[in-house]
Structures are given as C-alpha cells and as structure tokens.
Amino acid sequence: MTPAQLRRVREALNSFAVETPSWGFADTGTRFGKFFQDAAAIDLGDKLADAGHVHALTGCCPTVAVHVLWDFKPGEDPKAVARLARKHGVKIGAINPNLFQDQCYKWGSFGNNDATVRAAALQHCVDSVAIGQAVGSEYLSLWFADGTNYPGQGSIRERKHAFEDSLRALHRKLGPKQTMLVEYKPFEPAFYATDIADWGMALLLAKKAGPRAKVLVDTGHHYSAQNIEQIVAWLLDEDMLGGFHFNDRRYADDDLTLGSIDPYQVFRIFHEIHFFAADRGRMPKIAYMIDQCHNEKPKIEATIQTVVMAQELYAKAALVDHAALRVAQAKNNVVDAELILKRAFFTDVTAGLAAWRKANQLPGDPLLAHRRSGYARAAAADRRRRRKELGLTQGGSFA
Ligand SMILES: [Mn+2]
Q1: Ligand 1 mean position to 247 CA, how many Å?
Q2: Rounded CA gap, 292 and 197, in Å?
Q3: CB under 5 Å of ion ligand 1: residues
Q4: What is the 372 CA–ligand 1 centroid distance (Å)?
Q5: Residue 324, SS3?
C-alpha cells in the first residue's frame, strides 16, 4: 500500500463503527430447531459483557442494539441497563421494539384491523422511545412482521393508512435527539403481502411520518437480483438513508455472515457511500448495525469475523480513485470505470488495517486474540454452571 492509501484507510477506519446486536450473543435458531452453545449469553449482563469483549478487541463496536422484550424486564430502570453497559465498556445503541411475538399480533401490529391492538403496539413503541431517552440512545429501530398470507385477506390500502397514522403518531413522541428507522422486508413471515415490503414503501412511510424518520436497509431483506447499492445511492441522495442491518444471504433472509457470499456487493454499497461523501464533502450519518444470528458458528467469533470483514471492505471502498472515476464516467469509458472499482476491491488492505489497529493499541488479529484470551471457555463454564443453578433449560428467541 502507498502512504496515500494507508492514510485513506486510516481516515476511513477512524470514522467507522458497527453496532453489535444483543440477540447475536444469545441462543437463537430457526423454526425447525435450535442448537445450543454453552457460551451463549443467558441474560443482558452476559450479552453486554460479550459485546464489550468484541469492542475491546476490535475498537469498532462501541454500541449494542437491544430488543425491548428480550432485554428489559418489566419495571426495570433503564438507567441501570445503561450503567451495566458502561461497566462493560459499551453504550446502548438502537432500541428495537418487539411487535411480532405477542399473541395479540396474530393479525399484525400497526397494520392490525383492530384499533385496540394498534394502540397497544403504538404504546409499546412509545415506551421504547422513553427507554431510548433514559439510556441516551439515538435510534428507535422498527421492523414489522405485519402482512397478509392470502389474496383478499386484508385491504392493502387500509393497512397502509393504518401504518401512516401510527408512524406519524410515534414520530411525534421522539425526543429531539432521536431518529426513527423504518426497515423493510419483501416476505416472511407474511407470504402474500408484507405491509412494508420494499425500500420505496419504507421511504414513503418515513417521509410521511416526519423529518426524523429514515429508511433502514437490511442487506438480507432483498430478492436475489436486487441492486442494493443502487437503492443505497438513491436513499443517500434523498437524505433518507438512516442505517444498515448487515448480514449476507444466498436465498432469502439467511442471516449469513456479512461478505460470506458476496463481499463485492458489500464493497459496492460502501463505495456508493464514499463516493457520495466525496461529492458532498461530508460523510453522511449512518447507523451501521449487524443483524445476524449464528446457529452453528460460535457467536463471538462470528461477530468478530463480521466486524473485521466490514472494516476491510469499508477500507477497500475508501481506496476508489474518485477523480479518475469521474473522468472515466465523463468519457463513457466503461472498462476503465469498472476497473477503478475492481482495483480498489482487489487491493490488499491488510497493512492498513494492521497500522490502524497498532495505532489504536488493538490486537493485530482480533479473532486470534479472542481465541487466545480464553474468554469463550470461561464464559461457557460460567454460563453452564449458572444455567444449572437457575434450573434453566437452554432457550432464547427465534430471531
Ligand atoms: Mn434486520
């Protein structure tokens, strides 16, 4: 790497943080089965300890996303949770309400045709806003499982109106420093018409909700052929890109490790962000978050692998020669334009990552450092013993 490239990588990594999900450290599974891990987190204290360990090794994950239903006990003081996070060297990040698990949501939450259920869903979100304010979280992250399974089952337009009303009402409750992220997903659990099925629907709903509502792009929530970087470029241009949920997919919402199937796609997404920043003269504010649950991989290892991959691809995308790219584009020099991207993608940024880690007093290889730390073995022994004491059968959510 040239000194100029090393500098660009350093600058890029200095401005890049990824939020880990609390649910990524606990036992989760598919609807077919779960395979438990002794080292899986039992409670929020374990999850925050694991997240703190990942941040200590990577220097890149200062915040942890939480799920209100899974992580907060009723009546618990959210400030105590914020203190617990601080103890482990992290802060509470995005607050995720849970609008899909309770029996009342059989026919939907914000899209339900029963006004009392819609009101309950809204109240849960308003409570989540209050939790966010208490813990100093900037983001309320909304994903809805709402939709219908059969043609004719519900009025698509009425459900849309119900979403517009509830999102607008929720936006009014946001504090001045809070942003509401609206996530979309084409299908599952609804298999006919998901109420917020794509980025266009999320964009319209966010715009109608108010100025502090933005779109959240979950990379796994797209059909196979969709051009995600184009969606990202459009949302950036509209100042409507709020954040990401990172994961990779081969077929549907597979929860695979970021970049495990198509690292070049992640690179192209990051390229659109760097290119936008170069044109605008400022880096847009984006909440980068991981949304992955690993059923087979050790959870902390998978999280570190994801973070390191995200840093590597973000650094590679920072190496695209924007001036040369603009010239190639102006001349319609298609081959050169494409090669400019390819050259950056195939640049070995190992030296840049190593230099950044050294400058930040971080281990050169976070995964190796984790394996050598003995953390997983100690966590497994401790959590196995506590499960026995508590009489817990291993469980967790189905995220
Ligand atoms: Mn997601």
Answers
A1: 9
A2: 20
A3: 218, 245, 291
A4: 31
A5: helix
Domain boundaries, the chain: 3-389
| C-alpha 239 to ligand 1 mean position (Å) | 20
Comparing CA positions, the residue from 75, 73, 191, 197 lying closest to residue 143 is 197
Task: Find the 217 Cα to ligand 1 centroid distance in Å.
Answer: 8
Q: Given its phi and psi angles, is residue 156 left (phi above 0), alpha (psi -120 to 50 degrees) or beta?
A: alpha
Q: What distance in Å separates the CA atoms of residue 369 and residue 142, rounded to the nearest whole number? A: 35
Helix runs in the chain, H state only: 3-14, 44-58, 68-71, 78-87, 115-135, 156-173, 199-209, 228-237, 263-280, 299-318, 322-330, 334-345, 350-359, 366-373, 375-390
Average pLDDT (334-356) is 98
Determine the CATH number of domain 3-389. Answer: 3.20.20.150
- Distance from the CA of 80 to the center of ligand 1, in angstroms? 26
Query: How far is the centre of ligand 1, averaged over its atoms, from the C-alpha of 245 (Å)?
Result: 5
pLDDT in tens, 3-23: 999 999 999 999 999 999 999
Mean pLDDT of 260-281: 98
Q: Are 74 and 124 in contact (CB under 8 A)?
A: no
Indicate the angle between helix axes 366-373 and 299-318, nearest 10 degrees: 160
Using the CB atoms, write b or e for 231-269: b if 16+ within 10 Å.
bbbbbbeeebbbbbbbbbbeeebebbbbbbebbebbbbb
Distance between first and last Cα of the chain: 40
Residue 23: per-residue pLDDT: 95
Taking the centre of ligand 1 as the mean of its atom positions, its distance from the CA of residue 218, in whole angstroms, is: 5
Q: Could you tell me the two tokens for 80?
A: 């105590």
Tens digit of each residue's pLDDT (9 = 90 or more) over 44-99: 999 999 999 999 999 999 999 999 988 988 888 999 999 999 999 999 999 999 99
